[in-house]
TrEMBL record:
Belongs to the cation transport ATPase (P-type) (TC 3.A.3) family. Type IB subfamily. It comes from Antiquaquibacter oligotrophicus. This is Cu2+-exporting ATPase. It is found in: Cell membrane. The chain holds residues 358 to 648 of 704 of the full protein. Signal peptide: none annotated.
Length: 291
């Protein structure tokens, strides 16, 4: 049987959009030392827009249509933004075949017989590709603006660059401030570049940042933080699932992926990061009363 007190607290939680999937997670939430937030889709809306395109071969629309063809089978927020922009511009997007997700790096597919990749700067570095000079300045400008950059690659050739702008959730600043006032350490984790991560963290008053983290490494960051205390991880993506499972309390954003929700003990139905502070408070209030 479910104890009465926790029945009441889950009802209270539900009113604030906190869905308790696992009672043990609700209990563990009373003694959290660190809250580790994923960036994209958690502290930000994850609904990206294409802020700039720089093409080295052909027009912006041509590289955009090719990138959209590659990304059409990906669920990543970057893929969605590129596909939506091509659609908004009324571009004809070819069918792609042999789609492969390059986890934490990009996407690959064959379009009109061409083997294309849309990927992060990490891939450019890993494949020792030389960035065309005309893209260097565009990439620097985008990064300074806090935008995420991906490149369209065909073998060693860089066909173009896309800058993607994300929006910080309006509630995130208050969510971070509230947790810090409760004496909780707040950290941020992302697969994105250090530059973008630092820009977002500075806006939110977060001073502990783990950037350039591959999907398989996110759980390792949780484990590292667990050496100094009890950790709650908040995330939305497929790539967050192992970290959510590893954390003392795994908290999924309601608007996130099914995989993230399945791996979490708590779900924030409202997708509002301020509910994390409310959760900690609710948990403390529940277990202070002798349960
Ligand atoms: P996060 O959720 O923190 O952004 P990911 O691991 O999903 O982390 O992605 C890390 C980086 O890999 C992204 O910032 C992007 O540069 C690149 N990436 C991943 N998937 C794609 C994709 N489908 N298209 C383009 N770039 C991608
Ligand atoms: Mg995310």
């Amino acid at each position: 049987a479910i104890p009465l007190v926790s029945q009441i607290s889950t009802a209270l939680g539900a009113r604030r959009g906190i869905l308790v999937k696992n009672k043990l997670a609700l209990e563990a939430a009373r003694s959290i030392d660190v809250v580790l937030f994923d960036k994209t889709g958690t502290l930000t809306t994850g609904t990206l827009g294409v802020a700039a395109i720089a093409a080295t071969s052909g027009s912006d629309d041509e590289v955009l249509a090719l990138a959209a063809a590659v990304e059409s089978k990906s669920e990543h927020p970057i893929a969605r933004a590129i596909v939506a922009e091509a659609h908004d511009r009324g571009l004809a997007v070819a069918e792609s075949t042999q789609f492969t997700a390059l986890a934490g790096r990009g996407a690959q597919a064959v379009v009109d017989g061409r083997d294309l990749v849309v990927a992060s700067h990490r891939v450019v570095v890993e494949r020792a590709i030389t960035l065309p000079v005309e893209l260097v300045q565009a990439a620097r400008d985008a990064t300074t603006a806090g935008n995420t950059i991906v490149y369209l690659l065909e073998g060693e050739a860089v066909l173009g660059m896309f800058a993607l702008a994300d929006t910080v959730r309006p509630e995130s600043l208050e969510a971070v401030r509230d947790l810090k006032e409760r004496g909780v350490r707040v950290a941020m984790l992302t697969g994105d570049s250090h530059e973008v991560a630092i820009t977002v963290a500075a806006q939110l008053g977060i001073d502990e940042v783990f950037a350039h983290v591959l999907p398989g490494e996110k759980a390792d960051v949780v484990a590292k933080l667990q050496e100094s205390g009890s950790v709650a991880m908040v995330g939305d993506g497929i790539n967050d699932a192992p970290a959510l499972a590893r954390a003392d309390v795994g908290i999924a954003i309601g608007a996130g992926t099914d995989v993230a929700i399945d791996s979490a003990g708590i779900v924030l139905a409202s997708s509002d990061p301020r509910a994390v502070g409310a959760l900690l408070k609710l948990s403390k209030a529940t277990w202070r009363k002798e349960l």
